[in-house]
């Protein structure tokens, strides 16, 4: 649960960096 949310946050950050 917690790890899943962490991965979601990391993926969101990477998407923002790409844009």
Could you characterize the architecture of this molecule?
- There is one protein chain.
- The protein has 19 residues and is an all-alpha fold.
- Helices cover 89% and strands 0% of the residues.
- The protein is built from one helix and no strands.
- The longest helix has 17 residues, at 2-18.
- It is rod-shaped.
Structural class: mainly alpha
Report the count of strand segments: 0
Euclidean distance between termini CA atoms: 27 Å
Strand content: under 5%
- Count of DSSP helices? 1
Low-confidence stretches: none
Instruction: Describe the global form.
Output: rod-shaped
What level of helicity do the residues show?
A: over 70%
Average pLDDT, rounded to a whole number, is 91
SSE topology string: H
| Largest sheet properties | none
Radius of gyration: 9 Å
Please name the defining characteristics of this protein:
about 20 residues; single chain; 1 helix; about 90% helix; mainly alpha
Précis, in short:
With 19 residues, this protein is mainly alpha-helical. Helix content is 89%, strand content 0%.
Layout of strands and helices, then pairs:
Blueprint: H1 2-18
């Amino acid at each position: 649960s917690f790890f899943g949310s962490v991965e979601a946050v990391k993926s969101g950050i990477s998407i923002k960096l790409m844009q």
